[in-house]
Description:
By secondary structure, the chain is mostly helical. The chain is built from eight helices and no strands.
Amino acid sequence: MGLTKAPGEVYMGEVQRIMYVHVPTAWNAMLALSFAFVCALCFLLTNAWKWDSRWKLPWRWRGALAAALHPGVHLAKPTWGVWWDWDPRLTTTAVMVFAFGGILALRAFVDDPARRAVWSAVACIVAFVDVPIVYFSVKWWNSLHQAQSTPQTVSSAFHLPLRVNAFGILFLWTGLVALRSRVASLRLRNELGPPLPDSKPAVTGAAPIAGGAS
């Protein structure tokens, strides 16, 4: 729809169609990191392992941040004249990508499940401080990046493609969260649980102990 049905933008022309990927991906990335923050907080307050399993995918969703930055860079060149600028929005977003990427490294290097969960949850909460800074950066500082758009400031011809893509990415992300949480729970069960006893006799055809068990 964004490529064929929606009209080109008056000032940006056809390059504006990048927005149908850039904007919905950025929306969902911010939502994913907010979900990660809530899960990390719930884990620290409840010590329930389900919260650690649920937020593993959202911080892996840092790839969505990179996906939001990548088309943003390609949109910046024809509109701003540069591939990259130390703009407040771009700079704070780059910091956010590296911060949540650091959590991935932390989880990879800590073997103990309990310490890994606590340390990464605390790191997630600290990294989340940058999320509202990213959102409000265009309001707090002079920025090349435009301010947040609303239905009142966006032409109605652009609404439907933006919303369809936003919900499409949201449904994909939700399904991946459910799948990744299930996988994480199974792996955690193997890490925390003792080895399951073998229900079969150790020696095939072994006879029972005489007299039976007391």
